[in-house]
Amino acid sequence: GVLSRHKTLDGKMPAEWKLLEDINVGCKHLCRQYAVRIDGENGVTRILTSLINSLEDWSFRMLASKQKSGMLENDWVKFFQSVSDWLIQMADMSKFIGSCETPEDRRLRIINIPVEPEDIFKKIQQWILTTRSGAERGNIQLAQEVCMQIFAAFLIKKAILLVNWRHA
Question: Quick check: pTM over 0.85?
Answer without folding.
Answer: no
